[in-house]
Amino acid sequence: MNTAYALTQPSGAAVHVPAHERVVLPNGITLLVVPSPEVPLISFHAVFRGGPLGDSKPGVASLVAGLLDKGAGSRNAFEFVDAVEGAGGSFSTVTGTEALSISGQFLARDQSLMLELLSDAITRPRFEAEEFEKLRARRIELIKATKDSDPAEVIGTYGRATLFGSHPYGKPSTGSEESLASIAHQDVLDYYRAHIGPDRLILVFAGDLDVGALRRDITERLGHWRKAGTAAAAVAEPACARGRRVLLVDSPESAQTYFWIGNVGVNKRYVEHAALDLVNTLYGGRFTSMLNTELRIKSGLSYSARAGFTRTTAAGEFAIRSFTDTENTATALDLSLETLTRLKTTGVTHDMLDSARSYVLGQYPLNFETAADWASALVELEFYGLGPEYIDEYAAQLRRVTLPVARTVIDHAFPKADDLVIVLIGDAAKIREAASRYGEVTEMSLTQPSFSPSS
Amino acid sequence: MKRIPSSTPASADVTAAPVSAASAPGREAIRSTVLANGMKIIVWPVHNIPNVALYNWVRAGSRNEAPGITGLAHFFEHMMFNGTARRRPGDFDKLMEAQGGANNAFTSDDVTVYQDWFPRGALELIFDLEADRIANLAFDPEVIESERGVVYSERRLSVDDNNHGYLAEQVQAAAYVAHPYRFPTIGWPADIQSWQLRDLQAFFKTYYAPNNQTLVLAGDVSPEEAFALARKYLEPIPRQDAPEPVLTREPPQLAERRIVVRRSAQTPLIQYAYKAPAAADERAPALSLLLSILVDGDASRLYRLLVEQQKLIIDVGGNWHEGFDPALVWLYFTLPEGADPDAVQPVIDAELARIAREGVSEEELRRAKNLVAVSFWKKLATIDGKAQLLGEYDVFHGDWARLFDAPAQFERVTVEQVQAVARDVLDVNRRTVGVLLPEPAELAAEDAEEDLESEDA
After folding, report:
1. Residue B10: is its pLDDT beyond 80?
2. Which CATH architecture has domain A244-445?
3. What is the CA radius of gyration of chain A?
């Protein structure tokens, strides 16, 4: 690997949280404002704590989120979307494992309209029965369509259901065909009353803002909003899986086997998160990772092989994801497990750590380029109670990671190859026998209307 | 995901511009130059983050293929990461990642585009790596075999195990009788398994000449330093004869074509592919806005009518393949389980006919223009978006500076122009219809076996 010029250790410019306002309003809203006038756009990000943690049945919070903009205040569903898109704006709702989020982006000239629409959606949603029925029916069909055309998209939902079981992280956050079918209109109304209110809300505005007008509008529109009254449910730390379990999801015509291999990882407050990022980059987080090198670069078995941690209030999952031709299923699984064992036993070298450090430092600023990026980043800090130092000091933390710290992380955060949940989506008739080599197999069909065999 | 072909359905989304982009901040700092060997370099200096985005546009896509070597342009894209006379397979990625850079690439029917995102300190390394693979690409026979497997896996992911991709590949193949746009960018299975070293060598010499490439950089770099590095690393690479132009013109389509595919599925699909103009056509802004009026967002015509009001479908999408040659406008529809496509199609057709007959409203056009405006500003907010848009305009519209004319062009479009383009394009005689019908898994498996037997015979 010769080069004709000197390659210096990249400086990896530090990223700093920009100047912003943070106030907690009397009714509990945490309000953050990040002015940034580069392009004539403004963004908002509204996050309610709890999300599916408050679900009476999986999918309730997700239906609530989807209905907030289907008619609110003086506008019916069509009038609302006409107002959003007529201005060239966007309004989208997402339900994560422990939050319900709404985000949007508008031209700066439409700030007052944006605030009106946002506050109507969260404080005066109509929840009309007809809109509820329509959305619920459509969501059920969309899950079937995704199963038809994108098995890699749904495999994580099967994985979490198998790994976390009855723990809240095991529930499908947007519901299953079966759970959605069981949800009644009243469930949505009950959820909204108990779980949506200013005391659950983190609200961030960023971009080319008129800050004075924003303050006035927020006070006027949201200052008197009634509280949700209940706190978001606490989440217990989930138990790690011991031994091996295999879920085989039968998709009879599938040309490939899609696989997910996981166990419980670490939570958002994990102290050595910089070291974790470096080790995971080396294991499964970039193109030349150990995993992609084995499954793609050296063997041509797969187009893609990756691994990563989902870090939430309580520990989420560590998961390996890849896919391969049906007949090579066992070869690819063996390689994945061998690579994990190699990480656990041999660990990483000093040179590997340096390369990962440069990579993570070099790519880090690309996550904080726009006002909308900062809106998301600040929501995350606030949600998990992390200070600005989580971002400001990240570069310095990366530079301090030593081999012994990397070893600690490998021992503590990465699962042993003997303790894993394995999910396979593929042609069961052809891979059933191979699957049985990896642990006790439970089987279900991809068209079964839920993400676990028992529910 | 890395090195993804933007194959089926054709990729180009309704990007492009609006709002007074004369005010696009920093555009006065953009500089371009043409090296002595014919390679064009465009630089947009932006210093908000210490990083640079690089896009290298090579005018080679599945449009430049022939039966027997379909998928070669895309396969070639993979091979561009796999070793040179100076560096072993894998060194390209290892060196780049060790200096903080990441990369990707995509292939379409028209172009192959290589992308790097890196901290400014890696600038010289990036020029060295990019020049090395253009000047000295080498082919390791073992790597070729291994990479065939990777591409086949990519095909299974995006076509064989994806009903949308599976149907679109059939529709695209049926929509053309002469033009190479009929080839799937990922390649037909038999071709993926059989192309040879000599095919790769010939393709490289013809299409990877510097005079067939346009390099765009946006970010923390000055035009002077980028031009100096380009002269040092890229200018010595010799110019080649221009590739043979693609002369084939698709003959006029005389009647609707129809493809019906039966396979294991829960949800039926319908796809329409209409013959449409080339990217550089003067009707381009009107056509983009028409498509936005039809399918962009929850207030769009087809979404509101078919999903919200009639509840006949669960999802609708569309795009226009903006290519060098006239290509397709796609509309696709996902139906709920148990729905009958024959009952849904007349409702879609009646609405499309109504638009051609009665046109669209001023409000609908305003909405489309505003949506396009926001997407323009969103793209211009990042160095990646800037590099992409400059390249797109230079390659498909002849000059990067036209990017900044686009907003005014979109603003000028009238409801009459939208109706006129709707009448021209949404012509049932010039479309190909694809329908995917679910059938029980056992039957589908038997069909697949029969297909294989007849191929062997």
Report:
1. no
2. 2-Layer Sandwich (3.30)
3. 23
Is A54 within 8 Å of A194 (Cβ atoms)? yes
| R_g of chain B computed on alpha carbons | 23
Contact flag A287-B2 (C-beta cutoff 8 Å):
yes
Where are the domains positioned within chain A?
21-222, 244-445
CB contact under 8 A, B125 and A3: yes
- Supply φ then ψ for residue A350, to 5 degrees: -60, -45
Q: Do A447 and B266 touch (CB under 8 A)?
A: yes
Fold of B257-442: Cytochrome Bc1 Complex; Chain A, domain 1 (3.30.830)
Q: Scanning every residue of chain A, which has its alpha carbon at the shortest distance from the alpha carbon of B151?
A: A303
pLDDT for A7: 52
Tens digit of each residue's pLDDT (9 = 90 or more) over B273-292: 999 999 999 999 999 999 99
Instruction: Name the DSSP class of A159.
Output: H
- CATH topology for B21-233 is Cytochrome Bc1 Complex; Chain A, domain 1 (3.30.830)
Write the CB contacts of A223 (distance below 8 Å, at least 6 apart in sequence): A25, A26, A27
As a whole number, the mean pLDDT across chain A is 95
B169 catalytic per annotation: no
Token pair 């050595």 is at which residue? A272
Taking CA–CA distances from A14, the nearest residue in chain B reads: B50
Region of A199 (left: φ > 0; alpha: ψ -120 to 50; beta: rest) is: alpha
Cα-based angle B363, B367, B370 (whole degrees, multiple of 5): 135
* Domain positions in chain B: 21-233, 257-442
Question: What SS3 class is residue A225?
Answer: coil
Give CA–CA dist B143/B135, Å, rounded: 19
Instruction: Tell me whether domains B21-233 and B257-442 share a fold.
Output: yes
Whether the CB-CB separation of B93 and A287 falls below 8 Å is answered with: yes
Q: Which CATH architecture has domain A21-222?
A: 2-Layer Sandwich (3.30)
DSSP, collapsed to helix, strand or coil, labels residue A305 as strand
* Strand, coil or helix: A204: strand
Give start and end residues of each alpha helix (H) in B24-140: 72-79, 91-98, 123-136
Q: Which residues contact A279 (CB under 8 A, 6 or more apart)?
A: A343, A348, A356, A406, A409, A410, A413, A414
The pLDDT tens digits of the residues spanning A290-329 come to 999 999 999 999 999 999 999 999 999 999 999 999 999 9
Q: Are B392 and B324 in contact (CB under 8 A)?
A: no
Q: What is the ipTM, given to two decimal places? A: 0.94
In angstroms, the CA B4 to CA B214 distance is: 20
Q: Count Cβ atoms below 10 Å from residue B443 Cβ, excluding itself.
A: 12
Q: Which helix (H) or strand (E) holds B452?
A: helix B441-456
Contact present, A208 and A41 (Cβ < 8 Å)? yes
